[in-house]
């Protein structure tokens, strides 16, 4: 009997030790992942300050997923834009990048890092390049459904980057090329902005019960994302032209007797004005989906509502500023809203938390000549 009791005691002690070891392992893993996410959130803050302001508002259940998705897309963007590699080599890495996220291979990670390290003058972007393993570790720790959402958006964004590398010359070619048609620009905005908008919408829908039909909600999110993308393209036009890229269609430029290389001359700003105004109008039309999108967010979801409202309002402000800009082709001047406007928007946000009417009035004021709608389709 004593032997039996001793065996039972030994078994009990072994079980306790196993439970303790598992507990210690879980605590260490949580501690490690918290440190990783702290580092990645700091990278997000330094590489996109305005996006970081929205991301930090998101509930914990979706915040890490959002941050990891953005940083992985930003990493792919660094690959596509590096001047250290020939375009065909960049294409190779962009093509395999989604699978590299899904199945990390240390050898390929190190090879990629060696080939693109030192390609960014921004110390935080350079730090991001060093942190692909950390991004992948954070990705692997997310729920399976969230990992699939990230893989989907990374794949779409990589398709957009392939368009860059196929359509435009190498940065040192001293040549400027444009997309041939508006259809190409529609597709590019969908891949680079619209699909990230769908990703954010799917993430919200995974956490929030929505009154709207999901596919309709996702289409509104796509429109908003496309609007944000055309804002980026308009703002970055002078810089993009100097690396050979003109996203505005050649068919639009030809109507005003312009060639892509003509946009390198500030004196052609007046002739370019109708093209600029066309795409500002397109962006505004897309952005009007925000009226329906915001109203579909339950009033109790304060964090989600503020995180959606801020980038929409800032995009509307930027479109207004772009419309007033008389010399968009000036490489020494980048159009952006002042930091005071950003902080004023944040301070004035509380009334929006529980009122769709307050948000609609605020946004409608930024579109004084147009009634709210659900956003235009590509046409």
Distance between the termini: 86 Å
Classified in CATH, the superfamily of the largest domain is: Farnesyl Diphosphate Synthase
Q: Tally of extended strands?
A: 2
Strand order of the largest sheet: 1-2
Cα-atom Rg, whole angstroms? 24 Å
User: CATH class of the largest domain, please?
Assistant: Mainly Alpha
Give the CATH architecture of the largest domain. Answer: Orthogonal Bundle
Q: Element order, helices and strands? A: HHHHHHHHEHHHEHHHHHHH
Sheet with the most strands? 2 strands, parallel
CATH topology call of the largest domain = Farnesyl Diphosphate Synthase
Report the β-strand fraction as a percent range.
under 5%
- The level of helicity is over 70%
Total count of domains: 2
Tell me about this structure.
The protein is mostly helical. It has 2 domains: 27-143, no CATH class; 168-379, Farnesyl Diphosphate Synthase. The chain is built from 18 helices and 2 strands. The chain has a two-stranded parallel ribbon with strand order 1-2. Helix 1 (2-47) packs antiparallel against helix 6 (123-130). The model is unreliable at 23-39 and 370-379 (pLDDT under 50).
What's the helix and strand layout?
Elements: H1 2-47, H2 49-55, H3 60-81, H4 87-102, H5 106-116, H6 123-130, H7 132-140, H8 144-167, E1 177-178, H9 182-205, H10 214-235, H11 237-241, E2 245-246, H12 250-254, H13 269-287, H14 289-296, H15 302-324, H16 339-347, H17 350-353, H18 356-365
Parallel strand pairs: 1-2
Helix pairs in contact: 1-2, 1-3, 1-6, 1-7, 2-15, 3-4, 3-7, 3-8, 4-8, 8-9, 9-10, 10-13, 10-14, 10-15, 13-15
């Amino acid at each position: 009997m004593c032997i039996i009791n001793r065996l039972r005691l030994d078994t009990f002690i072994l079980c306790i030790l196993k439970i303790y070891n598992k507990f210690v392992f879980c605590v260490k893993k949580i501690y490690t992942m918290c440190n990783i996410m702290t580092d990645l959130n700091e990278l997000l803050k330094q590489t996109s300050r305005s996006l970081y302001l929205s991301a930090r508002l998101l509930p914990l259940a979706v915040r890490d997923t959002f941050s990891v998705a953005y940083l992985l897309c930003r990493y792919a963007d660094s690959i596509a834009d590096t001047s250290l590699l020939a375009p065909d080599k960049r294409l190779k890495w962009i093509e395999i990048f989604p699978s590299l996220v899904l199945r990390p291979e240390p050898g390929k990670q190190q090879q990629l890092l060696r080939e693109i390290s030192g390609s960014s003058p921004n110390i935080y972007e350079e730090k991001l390049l060093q942190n692909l393993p950390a991004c992948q570790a954070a990705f692997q720790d997310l729920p399976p459904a969230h990992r699939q959402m990230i893989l989907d958006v990374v794949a779409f964004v990589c398709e957009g980057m392939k368009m860059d590398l196929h359509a435009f010359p190498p940065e040192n070619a001293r040549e400027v090329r444009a997309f041939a048609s508006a259809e190409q620009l529609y597709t590019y905005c969908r891949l680079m902005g619209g699909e990230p908008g769908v990703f954010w919408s799917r993430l919200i829908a995974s956490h929030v019960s929505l009154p709207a039909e999901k596919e309709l909600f996702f289409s509104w999110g796509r429109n908003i994302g496309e609007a944000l993308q055309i804002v980026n393209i308009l703002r970055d036009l002078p810089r993009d032209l100097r690396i050979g890229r003109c996203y505005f269609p050649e068919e639009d430029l030809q109507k005003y007797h312009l060639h892509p290389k003509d946009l390198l001359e500030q004196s052609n700003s007046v002739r370019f004005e109708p093209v600029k105004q066309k795409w500002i109008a397109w962006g505004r039309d897309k952005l009007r989906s925000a009226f329906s999108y915001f109203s579909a967010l339950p009033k109790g979801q304060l964090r989600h509502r503020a995180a959606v409202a801020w980038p929409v309002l800032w995009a509307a402000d930027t479109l207004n500023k772009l419309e007033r800009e008389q010399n968009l082709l000036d490489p020494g001047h980048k159009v952006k809203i002042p930091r005071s406007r950003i902080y004023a928007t944040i301070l004035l946000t509380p009334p929006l938390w529980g009122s769709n009417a307050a948000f609609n009035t605020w946004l409608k004021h930024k579109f004084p000549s147009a009634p709210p709608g659900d956003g235009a389709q590509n046409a």
